[in-house]
Design brief:
Length: about 170
């Protein structure tokens, strides 16, 4: 299963930190819920399989070479290293919004690990394929605040160092 950095991993981005003890239970819930989604919603694996690296959500949540770290950043939900596609960070902003947003952020970042590009909304559509939003949010482009899916998120932008996908 995806690993949580508790101080036993050095992330590729030196600004990323071990997961604070206070956030670990929420992140652990999100990992297990992502695994439940992969087992129970065929649309999730089907969507991930269509991404460029053709890995299913089932395979990604089981991949112990993937690491989840933390950053205190109120300006974004999370990010994925595009240098190694192994390091994911979940930001304080996601934790502040609650466990369902942490789960949606994890799914979104796993879509980048699966090859979802950042110049369109394919990573955020993975959240929709995992049952965390309503189709009419996509069609109308209007966010329902009762779901963690956000139709206005376009996956990533590149930081000046061009090594990290930013959400």
């Amino acid at each position: 299963m995806i690993q949580i950095n508790i101080g036993d991993h050095r992330p590729i981005d030196p600004r990323w930190q071990p997961m604070p003890r206070a956030e670990r239970a929420v992140l652990d819930w999100a990992r297990h819920r992502a695994r439940w989604i992969a087992r129970n919603l065929s649309s999730a694996d089907a969507y991930f399989k269509r991404l460029p690296f053709q890995k299913t959500l089932t395979a990604l949540v089981a991949d112990s070479s993937l690491w989840l770290s933390y950053e205190d950043n109120p300006g974004r939900y999370g990010a994925t290293s595009i240098r190694n596609f192994r390091d994911i960070v979940i930001s304080s902003h996601a934790f502040d919004k609650g466990r369902w947003v942490v789960l949606a952020t994890l799914i979104h970042e796993l879509a980048h690990v699966g090859g979802a590009p950042g110049f369109n909304d394919s990573a955020e559509q993975a959240v929709l394929a995992c049952g965390l939003g309503r189709r009419d949010e996509l069609i109308r482009g209007r966010d329902d605040p009762k779901t963690p899916y956000e139709p206005g998120i376009f996956g990533m932008s590149l930081k000046p160092d061009r090594e990290t996908a930013v959400v």
